[in-house]
Automatic annotation (TrEMBL):
Residue span, Adenosine deaminase domain: 72-415
Pfam family, one: A_deaminase
Coiled coil: none
Organism: Cyphellophora europaea (strain CBS 101466)
Keyword line: Hydrolase, Metal-binding
Protein name according to UniProt: Adenosine deaminase
GO cellular component terms, A-Z: cytosol
GO molecular function: adenine deaminase activity; metal ion binding
GO biological process, any: adenine catabolic process
SUPFAM superfamilies: Metallo-dependent hydrolases (SSF51556)
Amino acid sequence: MAAQGALRQTAGSVSINTTWPKNASYIGPRKLPNNFNTYKPALSLGRCKEVIPNPGGKMNGLEISPFIRSLPKVELHVHIEGTLTPALRWKLAKRNNVPLKYATFEELLDSYKVTYNHRKEVNGDDGRPTFLEAYFAGCQVLCTEHDFYELGMAYLERCKEMNVRYTEPFFDTQAHTERGIPAEVVLDGYLRAQQEGAKQFNVQSNWIFCFLRDRPFEEGMDAYEAARPWARVPGGKGLFHAVGLASNEFDKPPLLFETAFLKAKQDGLYVTMHCDVDQKDAADHVHEAIFDVCAGQGADRIDHGLNAIDRPELLQGLRTRKIPLTLCPHAYHRRQQTEVLFPKITKLLDAGVQICINSDDPTYMHDVWIDGNMQKTYTYCGLSQRDMVRLARNGVEASWASDEVKSRLNQELDAIEIE
Ligand SMILES: [Zn+2]
């Protein structure tokens, strides 16, 4: 898969020979501050030297430095359907005769340039699509076991290119079974990708089954029961080792799914959950995830959870209960100014919260992947190479990889020569 620059790909019977628009990766209404180029964070821990300014290019002038590119990485917050590239979407649409509302590939590409209305419920309807509308529209082209396999393999190949050595992708079955796709088609495709990706790309993966929180609880439990034979349970196939909570969080606090969490725990699985940023009741949801769910034990991990900085007891709870946060800085950077967002991440680091850096839904977020998210953190938090190694190590420690995988990755991180 092409990382960036020229892309040549055959999509079904349609041959595409196009170039990614140089400025397509970051287009949206968010205005950069006037002092963007000279901006220095208040809490600087040392400056990064390698960033090459490239105004108008990918990531608003940032390029991924050789140091970030080569850093061994772990990704713990990525939705596999959020890695569906426009090229693969186009190809699968043709292969499966799924109509797209775009006449040409270029029109499809253009549709990704929008910055979505984050939440209509919170922000009001201004005519722009929400992220979730775009995301679920993309899912329509995934029909066969081979489609899901290809999606998984494309992401794992991309992992290899970015030196992501281990990953825990989120997936769900509910978005597909409601379209008439049997759950086993989804699960078998991902299982084959998990196995082949480890062999072909040397990228290990343990996947996370997500409940769609804006759908009925009973439907989610049925989906979990149907997927359970693919879990890492005695006699199971070993695809997923954890459950998560995803989709629209509006008025859907974590405790609504407490019975599901207890069932997963009983099955020996880990529990993580999204606590969306600046969503209604965001800090209350973080509170539940730290102190209330899983019979008061708290989640094993929290996805996003940036609103923990709103209340001191949340920071303290994360620290004392050793609950890591899987942050996705570019997802927030689409909606928050540089000098507002990145000091929050620095504050979490300074408070001793274990955070790691991830991509969320890169193809729906201006094609910014984990390496781009790490570069943004490196630059805008003013971190040193040593700090970035620490963040990469946080990912290893926060993961549910085997001791063997963790130890191998830690050895590689130990061997990095810091400038
Ligand atoms: Zn997410």
